[in-house]
Design brief:
By secondary structure, the protein is α/β, with parallel strands linked by helices. The protein is about 45% helix and about 20% strand. It has 12 helices and 10 strands. Bound molecules: 5'-O-[(R)-(carboxyoxy)(hydroxy)phosphoryl]adenosine (KG4) and zinc ion. 5'-O-[(R)-(carboxyoxy)(hydroxy)phosphoryl]adenosine binds next to α6 and α7.
Length: about 350
């Protein structure tokens, strides 16, 4: 039997199998990650080799440098994930890999490696969207979580509100018209001379400041759940540069606190409106920005005020990791998704359901 027939037979058998163990590989940006997750919710191992220190000296991710470091790390990270799970490759039912969205060269490293493993061990391969991965982190965090719910997705590349109708069915409710929320955190941090990635640095500095500076917020329109971060980002940059030009001191902690409050309030106000509009009872927060404590507090506050439940991942599952990819793969399998061939390619952008989200 050839590779295709073998993985097809194995994949078909998985549809009836009770327990599914997934090995996932994620390399879309600056973390090389591999994880083993059982039945979409139980982490057996979760290994991350972060390149943050390497990219920090450049003030952001350098794509070529990321690809090279992924290539160096992916083998060891995958071996460690299997070892920490106490399993061999032959114990794995399904290999999952992030095929997009992200940096093409970086993604290709994970995709090529996963294809190689799949071919060598004749284990079916399933391609996973990074965005679906971020959402699925919450299935690990909250064992009772089931669709339908509203998801606020806020990362370095995306900011959107989705109605998650089913495990693999999404309706776009709103999205950013320009920059992503995480991108705004990173750019404001850079303006304030803080390290990359900016989100955690802004959060830290904001703790020492007060949100006393009024940065203009795009006019909230009644009928839209869209976001815009470019105006806020420019307002903060102009504020800092204008003060500097006049030789005036700025209180960087107040700038950080004021920016953070404005950025997060925009997210939470729209998210709360989306929950009410869709008459759902749960708000799930996903993506790197969900690590922000002020965001988590404000989401809890809105949940208490309007009577819904707020769910967000533990800190380690907010930013990029492979456990979330393994979880998403399990639910894709259960939703009837098919496996990939060896012609699987990486994609810089991927649609989510009907919508191309930004
Ligand atoms: O999900 P993620 O790790 O990668 C993408 O898929 O983009 O998100 C990274 C983004 C960065 O922009 C980073 O600054 C932001 O998430 N981030 C935060 C925090 N931790 C990470 N933003 C605000 N507060 C945080 N604590
Ligand atoms: Zn991400």
């Amino acid at each position: 039997m050839g590779y295709y027939e073998s993985v097809k037979a194995k994949f078909d058998a998985l549809k009836e199998k009770k327990d599914i163990t997934v090995l996932a590989i994620e390399s879309s940006c600056d973390e090389t990650a591999a994880a083993v997750v059982k039945n979409g919710r139980q982490i057996l191992s979760n290994v991350i080799a972060s390149q943050i220190e390497i990219h920090r000296r450049f003030g952001g991710v350098v794509p070529e440098v990321a690809s090279r470091n992924h290539t160096a790390a992916v083998g060891k990270v995958t071996d460690d994930a299997l070892k920490q799970a106490g399993l061999r490759l032959s114990d794995i039912d399904l290999i999952a890999v992030t095929y997009g969205a992200g940096l093409l060269g970086a993604l290709l490293v994970g995709v090529s490696y996963a294809k190689g493993l799949s071919y060598a061990a004749e284990i079916p391969l399933i391609p996973v969207s990074h965005i679906k991965g971020h959402i699925a982190a919450n299935y690990i965090a909250c064992p009772q979580l089931e669709p339908p719910y509203v998801c606020l997705l806020a990362s370095g590349g995306h900011t959107a509100l989705l109605k998650v109708e089913d495990y693999d069915s999404f309706t776009l409710l709103g999205s950013t018209q320009d920059d992503a929320a995480g991108e705004a955190f990173d750019k404001v941090a850079r303006t304030l001379g803080l390290k990359y990635p900016g989100g955690p640095e802004i959060e830290k500095l904001a703790l020492q400041g007060r949100p006393v500076i009024k940065f203009t917020r795009p006019m909230a329109k009644e009928d839209t759940l869209d976001f815009s971060y470019s105006g806020l980002k420019t307002a903060v940059i102009n504020y800092v540069h204008n003060r500097a030009a006049k030789g005036e001191e700025i209180n960087a902690a107040d700038v950080a606190a004021s920016f953070q409050k404005t950025a997060v309030d925009m997210l939470v106000d729209n998210a709360a409106a989306a929950v009410r509009r869709t008459k759902t009872d749960t708000l799930v927060i996903a993506g790197g920005v969900s690590a922000n404590t002020y965001l988590r507090e404000q989401a809890d506050r809105a949940a208490a005020k309007y009577g819904f439940r707020a769910v967000y991942p533990p800190l380690g599952l907010c930013t990029d990791n492979a456990a979330m990819i393994a979880s998403a793969a399990y639910f894709l399998l259960r939703s009837g998704e098919s496996f990939a061939g060896l012609d699987l390619d990486a994609k810089a952008t991927v649609p989510l359901g009907q919508a191309d989200i930004t």
